[in-house]
Write a structure and sequence with these properties.
By secondary structure, this protein is an alpha/beta fold. It is built from ten helices and six strands, in the order E-H-H-H-H-E-H-H-E-H-E-H-E-H-E-H. It folds into two domains: 142 residues, HAD superfamily/HAD-like (Rossmann fold), CATH 3.40.50; 67 residues, Putative phosphatase, domain 2 (DNA polymerase, domain 1, Orthogonal Bundle). 42% of the residues lie in helices and 11% in strands. Helix 1 packs antiparallel against helix 4.
């Protein structure tokens, strides 16, 4: 029984991953570390900045420094205001869901809220917006999804996660939750995600957000926009 839908944000609710990866790779290069876009997608997709910084420290002896983080934030937000778009079908699809939903993302809370606000989705989710900054361990650890379930007062077994990244799918599995993999984002092909996602055996793989309410096998409903 599905009592709560937990949406990832980047690559699921908003088509943001190509924009974010462009900024991330440039910031890493500014520190003298060369990372290909393919490697960035493979190693960093779905992970928090803290986890990315730790990975860079382990692999290259240097984390993301304060200057890089500050410039990334400003550059990314400026790019979002110019180019960020919702995933096709959103936010209209949200009005067809008849179970509670929330968002749980590896991004910082400020970035999640900006992404949702720019794409007209924040009123649908507020105040149920959860960030990896709220827990000790980010994805692929289950902490964030378990935190969201606790805050929404729903048992993990009754939650469905909508994710696009291998790290997020692994986190949902570790949390004991069902998980649907969304592969409709523009980053899926360049990140070569289809095979990586399929290898993790999510409960369903789908590429059209319009179809999600019908895939849930729930009675139809139409909520008014908040």
């Amino acid at each position: 029984m599905i009592d709560l839908i937990i949406f990832d944000c980047d690559g699921v609710l908003v088509d943001s991953e190509p924009l974010a990866m462009r900024i991330l790779v440039a910031a890493i290069a500014a520190q003298g570390i060369t990372i290909t876009l393919e490697a960035a997608y493979r190693d960093f997709l779905g992970r928090s900045l803290a986890a990315i910084s730790s990975s860079l420290l382990d692999a290259h002896g240097a984390p993301l420094g304060p200057a890089a983080l500050a410039s990334m934030r400003g550059d990314l937000y400026a790019l979002y205001r110019q180019e960020l778009r919702p995933s096709p079908g959103l936010p209209e699809m949200l009005g067809r869901l008849n179970v509670p939903f929330c968002v749980a993302s590896s991004s910082e809370l400020e970035r999640i809220r900006l992404s949702l606000a720019l794409t007209g989705q924040l009123p649908w989710f507020e105040p149920h917006v959860f960030s990896a900054s709220m827990v000790e361990n980010g994805k692929p650890a289950p902490d964030l999804f378990l935190h969201a379930a606790r805050q929404m007062d729903v048992q993990p077994a009754n939650c469905l996660v909508i994710e696009d990244s291998p790290a997020g799918i692994a986190a949902a599995r570790a949390a004991g939750m069902a998980v649907f993999a969304y592969t409709g984002g523009s980053h899926v092909a360049p990140a070569r995600l289809q095979a990586a996602v399929a290898a993790l055996h999510p409960d369903m793989i789908f590429n059209d957000m319009h179809t999600l309410p019908d895939r849930l096998n729930l009675p139809r409903t139409n909520k008014k926009a908040p």
